[in-house]
Amino acid sequence: MRVGGNILSSPVYELSTVPFPIPIKGIFFTKVINFWQSGKFRILNNILFADKTVDLRGQMMQVVVLEHTPAVLTSISNPVIEMANSKTTDDNNHLHNRPNFQTFTKLYYGVEVELLKAISKTMHFQMNFYETADAGLERWGTMSLNGTITGLLREMHEGRADFALADLHHTNYHLGFMDLSIPYNTECLTFLTPEALSDNSWKTLIMPFNGEMWAGVLFSLFSVGFVFYAFSSTMSYIHRHEKSYQPEYDMIKRSHRRRRKPKDAFGILTCKAKLARCKTFCNRKLSNSFLRCVQKNRKANTQSTAVPYSYNSNVKLQKIRMIQFKRKPEPWHDPLPPKDIFDSFAGCIIYTYSWYWIYCVLVVVAYRASFTAILANPIPRLTIDTLQDLAKSPIRCGAWGEQNLRFFQMADDPHSQIIGTKLEHAPNPQDAVDQVVQGMYAFYENIYLLRQLRSTQKSEKARQTLHIMKECVVNMPISIGLEKNSPIKSQVDRYVRALVEGGLTGKWLSDAIERFQSNVELPPQEATIDLTKMYAGIIALGIGYGISMVAFMAEKCYWVYFVESNPSFDKYLLGTKFRKQG
Questions:
Q1: What gap in Å lies between CA 444 and CA 447, rounded to an integer?
Q2: Domain boundaries, the chain
Q3: What does DSSP say about strands 396-399 and 423-425: parallel, antiparallel, or unpaired?
Q4: Does the first or last residue of the chain, that is N or C, have fewer Cβ atoms within 10 Å of its Cβ?
Q5: Which CATH architecture group holds 193-202+378-479?
Q6: What is the pLDDT of residues 406-442, one digit of tens each?
Q7: pTM for this structure?
Q8: pLDDT 10s digits, 302-311
């Protein structure tokens, strides 16, 4: 190359634009970018291939959204009165003003909305949020056998939207329709299952002891009763074979104190009988002599003198002593003197009763301690907390979309495969929750949405019935959707990673679930007395008191109309049996 008559030794290369691989049509004017000479560019600080995705210069981006907790949430703003002062000129050049009208603005917020807003401020682009026409019915969308795609997936597959905010799972199924950013969060996917409160109040009185303990207590009760009955029957059998023994005659004899001399087998007065006769004779002689002395003193004194108080008291006591009772109280003993060890069971019965009383005290103490512990414990809850429990239960399962069905059917876990066989498509989450409340359905979703669905139930009973399974089926990574082969994916991944490392995604997640975060299941309080547990006990006691009163009235009627009306009845001889005279 020759410049100004001088020959330059180094060549100069001109760099210009070429529309490769587009074929040139018509006249094409190239644009000079730079010149290369002697191993350097003539124009310094000139970037040949600048990354235009760094600054989008206010480009409008179409963002398709789908309301789903916690990624995208919606709210309706208050109506705002707007004045449209757009002035139009008609053919006569007159000025027309539009009238006032009210508009309802739909606001979007959530983790992904805040995340994309932060990225837009950095990359300098604007956003236009919109929902598909079939968002309420198709939601994410499905692909039929003939290849028809609906919902949000259709928007992304056809390239109508640049971003998709819909709590998208980072799976190969979604990668077939769009690009996905790096995951910004992982969500616990689990089931919303019905919870059954075991209302065992009717078993409160029998729960302190288990079956074996109750069997032992009842056996001891009946066995001791049979022992008493055996003692009584054996003694009656022995006395029945003694011809001289008559229980009625023995009781009448001890009650009336017959005056005939008690004799032993040889006709000789016993020592006890002699002492009793001597005591009676002495008392009679002393009382007669005392009375004669009193009468003699009365006759000697012509004037009436006041009788001392002690004398009157002695006379009254003497008169009372002369009254003979029909029956004198005596301590309990055998009717006849024992002849051998088998003739008297008084000692056996006393010892048996004493040990039985100690046994009853120990049983009552143990029952009371166990009963107090039962009242202090919370009501047991029958819940489904593992995949194994859900697979064994007869309840049906529901989830949205074909991808969830494939996930369970293609899982290596046998319990997940069993769940996949009974998994159904659930298009409406609220209808699925209503079926869960009925007790024969389980709904599969992320834990944040399940908490929201439970907190929005109006019925307190429905909120108590819904239980979120503790075991996570999978911790699913969540990403933002981008257009297929999007040139801004690398920049979006870069800023998403920075926002996650800065902790902003965690803050936005907390803000999104703040409304229903307080609805987290709390463990039951320990050591609280619940009086509802005693309702069945009160009813049982009432039934027992009622039966006791009926039995008491029946026994009283039998005593009045059958026992006391018998001519042979003697209220002083209640232990004797009535015998027909003849």
A1: 9
A2: 9-50, 193-202+378-479, 203-230+353-375, 535-563
A3: parallel
A4: C
A5: 3-Layer(aba) Sandwich (3.40)
A6: 999 999 989 999 999 999 999 999 999 999 998 889 9
A7: 0.61
A8: 444 444 445 5
